[in-house]
Amino acid sequence: DIQMTQSPSSLSASVGDRVTITCRASQSISNYLNWYQHKPGKAPKLLIYAASSLQSGVPSRFSGSGSGTDFTLTISSLQPEDFATYYCQQSYSASLTFGQGTKVEIK
Amino acid sequence: EVQLVESGGGLVKPGGSLRLSCGASGFTFSNAWMSWVRQAPGKGLEWVGRIKSITNGGTTEYAAPVRGRFTISRDDSKNILYLQMISLITEDTAVYYCTTLQTRGYFDQWGQGTLVTVSS
After folding, report:
1. Distance between CA A45 and CA A51 in Å, rounded?
2. Second label for B89, Cα 20 to 30 Å away, from A22, A67, B1, B105?
3. pLDDT per residue over A6-45, tens digit each?
4. Which of A41, A42, A37 has the alpha carbon at shortest distance from A87?
5. Could you tell me the end-to-end alpha-carbon distance of chain B, in angstroms, rounded to an integer?
6. Which of B47, B97, B110 sits opposite A96 (nearest CB)?
7. Cβ of residue A57 closer than 8 Å to a chain B Cβ
């Protein structure tokens, strides 16, 4: 299976901060990389697909970049509703795998 | 509006069986690829398996930890997705989410989840 490693595992940030989360694949996955937001007790939500395509209805402060093995999710100006856990997920191989998650907490 | 509603979760003993259901509405279910994703307590998201649409062969694929124990099926006449689980182990304890799966491999619609607890 392709291993996905996110960093950091958690971070503390303030409203208005620029936040960057990285995701590294154990082998090249082209741009088959997707990002999700998950809040406790809620259904996960797709934010970004194909590394940089914004899902319909997702605010433009979210953006994704990268190709090959290294990817980034950026929140340009953190809002109160953005405190959550974020996961990357590769869809290059038939065996789909997620990163371990990055918890974004209030500073 | 797309709706996915899981049901069938509960407490089951190790070695037992359980069948989860996912009722779908708001989209053409028969054309959709579907998947199950789970989250164990305090852990991250884990893909369980997927089923293609019948027009794409209706084939299934499973993650290694559940292969041979879990079976995904679909009833397009009722718009229901199933997850049959046998030989359950404590590590299967999780919230199970039903999702739609785009052909590029991302999960774009999610249900609210149903909790499965495997414990003696």
Report:
1. 15
2. B105
3. 999 999 999 999 999 999 999 999 999 999 999 999 999 9
4. A37
5. 40
6. B47
7. no
- B65: contact with A, CB 8 A cutoff: no
Question: Whole-angstrom Cα distance, residue A74 to residue A90?
Answer: 18
Contact A20, A104 (CB under 8 A): no
Nearest CA-CA partner of B103 in A24, A9, A50? A50
Helix (H) or strand (E) holding B118: strand B114-118
Q: A67: Cβ–Cβ under 8 A, 6 or more apart, which residues?
A: A30, A31, A51
CA distance B92 to B88: 6
The tokens describing B79, both together, are 């718009």
Q: What are phi and psi of B29, to 5 degrees?
A: -60, -40
The torsion angle over the Cα atoms of residues A37, A103, A91 and B72, rounded to 10 degrees, is -70
Say if residue B55's pLDDT is above 90: yes
Per-residue pLDDT of B66-101, as tens digits, reads: 999 999 999 999 999 999 999 999 999 999 999 999
Q: Is the dihedral of CA B102, B105, B108, B109 positive or negative?
A: positive
Q: HSE (CB half, 13 Å, CA atoms) of B87?
A: 7
- Residue A7's Cβ-side half-sphere holds a number of Cα atoms within 13 Å equal to 4
